[in-house]
Automatic annotation (TrEMBL):
One of its GO terms (biological process) is translation. The gene is rpsB. It comes from Candidatus Zambryskibacteria bacterium RIFCSPHIGHO2_02_FULL_43_14. Belongs to the universal ribosomal protein uS2 family. The keyword Ribosomal protein applies. Keywords: Ribonucleoprotein, Ribosomal protein. One of its GO terms (cellular component) is cytosolic small ribosomal subunit. It comes from the Bacteria. SUPFAM superfamilies: Ribosomal protein S2 (SSF52313). GO terms for molecular function: structural constituent of ribosome. This is Small ribosomal subunit protein uS2. It holds the Pfam family Ribosomal_S2.
Amino acid sequence: MKSRRHPSAKPFIFGSKNNIEIFNLEKTSKELEKALAFVEGKGKEGVMGLWVGGKSEAREAIMKAGRELEMPYVAGRWIGGTLSNFSEIKKRIIRLEDLTLQKEKGELSKYTKKERLLFDREIEKLSIYFGGLSRLKALPKFLVIIDPKKEYIAVAEARKIGIPVVALAGSDTNLYELNYAIPGNDSSRQSIAFILKELVTAYKKGKETQKIEQ
């Protein structure tokens, strides 16, 4: 909405209708191209990214992108310290992997029914918060975020460490805080799915280039 517009978004706004911002698609397209070139470069390098989008409109598309690229993702609440206190987060990821493996191998059967129930609850809880992070073995080389205003903690942690951020950002967002801001509707499932598909394709393109050159 116009009343919530951040000054940094003003150059990308074409106008408004019924107090709803309308983005200048030509300018958005130019920013998208910059973001795609960056992500393609990361694909060429073959480095790991982290895909973030906890809002209901983004979760499914974020999970799809992460799984398609075999990369970590956060499709729920961002856990503070995921980047800035990664050593502790890594312990929780390893704990989840260990418990899951033990359960699959039947190694938890030696415990009492009550103890197994506690293990199941721990696995369930860890899966909710850390299930999408199982591939995060080290700090990511870039972040892709849907709605950086909502995911402000993730943005702050990335900036503190120096990890580049690519984000689909609404008009209420401070675009200056983002390395590659894609000004657009970050509350539309269609918009989110389109942008993520483009970014996934760009990464794959870069990765294919890497294979050819090798």
